[in-house]
């Protein structure tokens, strides 16, 4: 146990200076030592390298647990228990260096009655220096601070445990916070759930209320609906709720309410509706009908209607049908409209086919065309061949292309129709005239994106026009020739009018007469043609003897005496026909023989009576007609080429003849051989054919 130094305890100490013990310094040191001796602090004085203990007061001896016998001995020798502690080393260092060493709360294990024990000290090894700065002795002062140290330890321990406590607490606190947050969250969830529950409860309450109102509302809904609606209840489809619209379609009034459907509308008996309703009722599956034909009685007769409708089953909580909601619309008008559009389209197609009208749609940006077969055909393309806008322009004869392009562009700009006639060259080289119409089509932004076009071939019409044009120039020329001759004759006559009547007068008068005669004939032809064109050639039927008529006609030929008219055949043939017109035909054929077979002296007129018709032939022995032109001889304006010779004529004679014979229900034709001459013939029904002729008249 530690022995605490008490100040009142006297302790003796000896301080011995090695060299001069009685010097003033010695006194000084002794005095100092005595002071120290009484100091409550433990004090010791050392000297030398082996740290000889010069002096130690009781307090120090108490610390050491030694008695005064240690004085004058080496530190290590008397305190071997401190060997493994740093004190000797420190003292040695202080001695050698002259530097004081101070320590606080320094631990030292000292021997006590109870064995070695740890104490704490504040101590100082103060180096006391001589005038040369060398260590003369070391003053060791120490005070035990074990209690303080322990107290501090205690405080430290306490503060440590406090800190731990704080740490623990803060951890706890954190945990608490986390838990709290969780709780808050849970609370919030609970709160939301609660609100939800409240809402559901409210909804349920409302639903309950709604349920009660539902039927009422449903009824109002059906009744006020702008579309035809009805509700049919139960397996017999009892008419439960109806609105005016559905009554209108059904052509019924409200008296049907409460009746089973078949009773309310007996006309539905053999129609599909009841079956469909039954199926919907059984399966619970809705049914949608599109444009279904319904025959609905209007009280007097059954009227055809087309209906779009939905049958929606209404089920109870066990999913069993209780009624069927019917929603319907009468689409009769639309169906009819569509049918008539289809009909119209069909008719249009027929008309287009009949008129050989081809149609196309050109996509202006790409030049792609969607064309009908006829359209392609008009340009000489097969239906399966690709045909685009560029091909179209390529087919058009070059001199027409730019003009057509201009017309199309103008139509696009003005939203107008373009109309044009142009010739196209087919791939086989043949030229065909087309009439084309087109109209632009615009997209929703008003930009022309397509062109719809139609074409039809007008080659025949064009040729006809061409022939007409040629004919007009021929006709004027033909008329002008005799007119010029007549004019000249009259001018000459005028000049010699005062002169005595002479041969010149006669010649000029005859010339004028001939010219006028020729003009009359030409004008007759023109008039006849014009009448034929307007179908105004009237026949005046009568019975006459053919032979008689023929022998009287063509006197002008006989008078000219350039040809012999030889009449052969049955002299008694009587025909029922327009005598004047038949004579006109014969005269025309004889005149042609005179004109085109000058060298043929004989001209034979042959009459034959065949089964039910009479045949009259006019035969010449002239140059004959080439086989290739024969099919065209009876065409209007047709005039064959006669190499080297030019004949006046309008190309109307044979055409008029054929029309007259056609009107008599007869036939006309020609046999001819180059170099041998030609036989023009016609037939008309024999007298027995009167009935036929009468029929033709009517
Ligand atoms: P045109 O007024 O030109 O004579 P037609 O219709 O009477 O017209 O005759 C048509 C063509 O038939 C004539 O242009 C002529 O070439 C040919 N033709 C008519 N009759 C004869 C004939 N007897 N012999 C040879 N060619 C004829």
Automatic annotation (TrEMBL):
Secreted as UniProt keyword: no
Transmembrane segments: none
Enzyme class: transferase
GO molecular function, one term: phosphorelay sensor kinase activity
Keywords: Kinase, Phosphoprotein, Transferase
Record field: catalytic activity: ATP + protein L-histidine = ADP + protein N-phospho-L-histidine
Domain Histidine kinase: 474-688
Domain PAC: 104-157, 288-343, 418-470
Entry protein name: histidine kinase
Protein's organism: Chryseobacterium shandongense
